[in-house]
């Protein structure tokens, strides 16, 4: 029923669980402070953490399949992640 997880999958899942816990804690803090300005600061902090988690999990995944990827596909992945980060950055 259960199979042994690859280290890359475990690492990616672990970082996503950490990210989810941070999101839940941030939601709790927003309700707890009950102030719109402080809630916006908390939300802005989440906008910083999200891309970091994206980069970490993508890096772990790419390292996990690096031996199966051609250099062209690796460049496409890096380019795609770069576009995502560029699109969500705030000016």
Give the helices and strands, then pairings.
Layout: H1 7-33, H2 36-64, H3 71-88
Helix pairs in contact: 1-2, 2-3
Order of helices and strands: HHH
* Mean pLDDT over the residues: 88
Largest sheet: none
Structural class by sheet pairing and helices: mainly alpha
Q: How many structural domains are formed by the residues?
A: 1
| Residue runs with pLDDT of under 50 for 5 or more positions | none
Percent of residues in helices:
over 70%
Strand content: under 5%
- Tell me the number of strands: 0
* CA gyration radius, whole angstroms: 17 Å
Shape: flat
End-to-end separation? 49 Å
Number of helices: 3
Written description of the protein model:
The protein is mainly alpha-helical. The protein is 81% helix and 0% strand. It has 3 helices and no strands. It has helices at residues 7-33, 36-64, 71-88. The protein is flat and about 50 Å long.
List keywords for this structure.
single chain; 91 residues; mainly alpha; 0% strand
Put the structure in a nutshell.
This protein has 91 residues and is an all-alpha fold. The protein has helices at residues 7-33, 36-64, 71-88.
């Amino acid at each position: 029923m259960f199979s042994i997880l690859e280290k890359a999958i475990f690492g990616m899942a672990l970082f996503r669980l950490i990210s989810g816990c941070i999101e839940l804690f941030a939601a709790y803090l927003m309700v707890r402070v009950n102030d719109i300005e402080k809630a916006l600061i908390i939300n802005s902090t989440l906008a910083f953490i999200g891309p970091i988690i994206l980069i970490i999990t993508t890096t772990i995944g790419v390292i996990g399949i690096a031996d199966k990827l051609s250099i062209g596909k690796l460049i496409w992945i890096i380019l795609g992640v770069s576009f995502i980060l560029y699109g969500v950055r705030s000016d």
